[in-house]
Design goal:
This is MobA-like NTP transferase domain-containing protein. By secondary structure, this protein is an alpha/beta fold. About 30% of the residues lie in helices and about 20% in strands.
């Protein structure tokens, strides 16, 4: 369920596309190195929390941004709502990215209008993704159905899905995400000049890549 009415946002370049930010993971690899730390609340060099930086790229490129979180992520929830995101909460027994995607897709199916014809799925631990890349991927979705960015030959995030794929997203579960769906359907790969499509935060050493 949405926790709050989001703040108004500037009109995005692709109003047909809804952003989905997946942030409900436990970040166990990060916590194993830095016990008690939530990687999505850790600060980047400019003082922005990882999860908030990740949300901003989607907010600039899409009509709405829906963040999927756990019930216990109060601090991040407050930041994202203040930034204009809707927040939906995974079930207590959710077990991985597939469950998070399904939660978001079910919410979209129930709470979207006919003009919203695609969604753009990004990960909350990828704070260097550029808004222009999100817009580039979103722009191609109506023509191609599923679109993913590539940088130096490697596929990354965000991945966009046309509305007809939402029921398949809603049926996902477990920790495999949308890999099976991507294997079943053609994916249009677009080359981008953005290393942020591959760069995530797994351990504290990833927070300052230029060090």
């Amino acid at each position: 369920m949405p926790s709050s009415t989001p703040a108004p946002a500037p009109t995005p370049p692709y109003p047909h596309c809804v952003g989905i930010l997946l942030g409900a993971g436990y970040g166990r690899r990060y916590a194993a190195v830095a016990p008690g730390h939530d990687k999505l609340m850790e600060m980047l060099d400019d003082g922005t929390p990882v999860g908030l930086a990740s949300a901003r790229a989607l907010r600039q490129a899409t009509a709405r941004t829906i963040a999927v979180l756990r019930r216990d992520q109060d601090a991040l929830r407050a930041l994202l709502i203040a930034a204009g995101c809707e927040v939906v909460t995974v079930a207590a027994n959710a077990d991985g990215m597939g469950d998070s995607l399904a939660t978001a897709a079910r919410h979209l199916i129930e709470h979207s209008d006919a003009a919203e014809s695609s969604c753009l799925v990004a990960l909350a631990d990828m704070p260097w993704l550029r808004a222009a890349t999100c817009a580039q991927v979103a722009a191609l979705t109506p023509a191609h159905g599923i679109v993913a960015p590539r940088w130096q030959g490697k596929r990354g995030h965000p991945v966009a899905f046309a509305r007809e794929r939402w029921p398949e997203l809603a049926a996902l579960s477990g920790d495999v995400g949308a890999r099976a769906l991507l294997a079943r359907h053609p994916v249009h790969d677009v080359e981008v000049d953005d290393p942020g499509v591959l760069a995530d935060v797994d351990t504290p050493g990833d927070l300052h890549p230029s060090d």
